[in-house]
């Protein structure tokens, strides 16, 4: 029986897919442990996964990131992403690595499966395969790794090939490493030297390319092609939580049975502290139209939405797999999971996001043809209205979303990952 250690930064969007994979591995006969934040203990244990807590230096609550990381809130979107790379992901690297070594002693794992922003893998991946367990990576976000065919991750630039395109990519990637993420790489390098006495084997965002494989949680139709690293990538589709079978329908549910277009707007569960960035402008944009607006607050009180309209429904939370079959367009700030929920139901999108990885998600959506990207995290009502009307008016967006839904339906992420990991364990192959 294989013993597998899962590793994740303590962020819901990273931990949830790892627990889903762990549940499948348990069902397939593996012993599974997870190293992550304390708040996720109940979730892991319900899935039959042994829980191991990260040390306090690596643990934080996403609901209070600005309190834990002083100065984060003052930074605009671009500088906040750089701040997060340095403070939230690179700085805990050494303590994460030591926690991994301690966990390995406790569970004697022969395989590690880590999500791409658990940078404690960087020192481990530099060791020769014979001196460590086999390592797999899971990309719980758009792929961040460097490629000759793509610009650096972050600003949401489209890929470019050909001689001039690759020259552009090379210059921009050098700038990202040497300027934008220089401090984050220095922090990661110092931590790696502290742990192992050696330099890191690669750029901090590229460690997944040194794993046995990097599992990509989407379909190739939604990611950029990368000719130089495609052999290291395995596309398995998204991991989306299903609604409970007995989930009650809210009292307003019958309003969805309408000939009016239904527009869903959400800011997800992380970047929803200010619903004036997208939810309220979308309500303002569509209040005097024939659309039915469904606004979800991502767990915040309904009173946090400071708007009212006869064509508006506000809810703290509605299971997306129940709601989306009734939706014509989804307006979102571009969370990876939420976008894939919509695409899995063939729903086209309007994406307006600028924090975390949201510009990159928006760029991929625009390139896929399944929606419209607004290059702002706080678009005005007029821009939102034009974008929604464009998607509703042009059937090509719905057609492309339905094509991606068909691609996604052919993939089963948790089963595919489990099969690969168990197959490698049985064969004894490494690297």
List keywords for this structure.
431 residues, alpha/beta, Glycosyltransferase, MGT family, 15 helices, single chain, EryCIII-like_C
Which helices and strands, and how do they pair?
Blueprint: E1 3-7, H1 12-27, E2 31-36, H2 41-46, E3 50-53, H3 65-68, H4 77-90, H5 93-107, E4 111-115, H6 121-125, E5 134-139, H7 162-180, H8 182-196, E6 214-216, E7 233-235, E8 262-266, H9 279-286, E9 292-296, E10 312-315, H10 320-323, E11 329-332, H11 336-344, E12 349-352, H12 358-368, E13 371-374, H13 381-393, H14 395-409, H15 413-427
Helix pairs in contact: 1-15, 4-8, 5-8, 7-8, 9-13
What's the number of extended β-strand segments?
13
CATH superfamily of the largest domain: Glycogen Phosphorylase B
Query: Runs with pLDDT <50, length 5+?
Result: none
Class inferred from helices and paired strands: alpha/beta
Shape, principal axes of CA atoms: globular
- Any idea what the radius of gyration is? 21 Å
What's the N-to-C terminus distance? 20 Å
What fraction of residues sit in β-strands? 5-15%
* Spatial strand order of the main sheet: 3-2-1-4-5-6-7
A few lines on this structure:
With 431 residues, the protein is α/β, with parallel strands linked by helices. 39% of the residues lie in helices and 13% in strands. The protein has helices spanning 12-27, 41-46, 65-68, 77-90, 93-107, 121-125, 162-180, 182-196, 279-286, 320-323, 336-344, 358-368, 381-393, 395-409, 413-427; strands at residues 3-7, 31-36, 50-53, 111-115, 134-139, 214-216, 233-235, 262-266, 292-296, 312-315, 329-332, 349-352, 371-374.
């Amino acid at each position: 029986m294989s013993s597998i250690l899962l590793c994740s930064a303590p962020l819901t969007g990273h931990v949830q897919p790892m627990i889903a994979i762990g549940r499948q591995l348990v069902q397939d006969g593996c012993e599974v442990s997870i190293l992550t934040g304390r708040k996720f203990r109940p979730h892991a244990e319900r899935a039959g996964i042994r829980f191991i807590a990260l040390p306090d230096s690596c643990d934080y609550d996403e609901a209070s990131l600005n309190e834990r990381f002083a100065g984060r809130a003052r930074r605009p979107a671009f500088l906040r992403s750089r701040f997060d790379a340095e403070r939230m992901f690179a700085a805990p690297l050494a303590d994460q690595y030591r926690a991994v070594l301690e966990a390995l002693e406790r569970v004697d794992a022969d395989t590690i499966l880590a999500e791409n922003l658990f940078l404690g893998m960087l020192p481990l991946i530099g060791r020769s395969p014979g001196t460590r367990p086999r390592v797999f990576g899971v990309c719980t976000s758009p792929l961040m790794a460097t490629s000759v065919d793509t610009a650096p991750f972050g600003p949401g630039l489209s890929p470019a090939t050909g001689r001039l395109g690759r020259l552009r990519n090379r210059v921009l990637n050098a700038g990202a490493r040497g300027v934008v993420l220089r401090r984050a790489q220095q922090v990661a390098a110092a931590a790696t030297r502290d742990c192992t006495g050696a330099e890191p084997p690669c750029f901090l965002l590229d460690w997944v390319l040194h794993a046995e494989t990097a599992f990509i949680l989407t379909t190739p139709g939604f990611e950029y092609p990368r000719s130089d690293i495609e052999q290291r990538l395995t596309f398995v589709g998204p991991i989306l939580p299903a609604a409970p079978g007995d989930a009650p329908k809210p009292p307003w549910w019958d309003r969805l049975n309408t000939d009016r277009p239904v527009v869903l707007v959400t800011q997800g569960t992380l970047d929803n502290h200010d619903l004036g960035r997208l939810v309220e402008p979308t309500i303002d944009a569509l209040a005097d139209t024939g659309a039915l607006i469904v606004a979800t607050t991502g767990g915040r009180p309904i009173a946090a939405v400071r708007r009212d309209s006869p064509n508006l429904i506000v809810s703290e939370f509605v299971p997306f797999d129940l709601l989306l079959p009734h939706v014509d367009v989804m307006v979102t700030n571009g969370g990876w999971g939420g976008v894939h929920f919509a695409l899995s139901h063939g729903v086209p999108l309007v994406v307006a996001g600028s924090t975390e990885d949201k510009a990159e998600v928006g760029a991929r959506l625009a390139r896929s043809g399944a929606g419209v990207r607004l290059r702002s995290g706080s678009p005005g009502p007029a821009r939102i209205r034009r974008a929604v009307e464009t998607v509703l008016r042009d059937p090509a967006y719905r057609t492309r979303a339905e094509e991606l839904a068909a691609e996604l339906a052919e993939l089963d992420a948790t089963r595919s990952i489990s099969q690969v990991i168990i197959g490698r364990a049985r064969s004894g192959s490494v690297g």
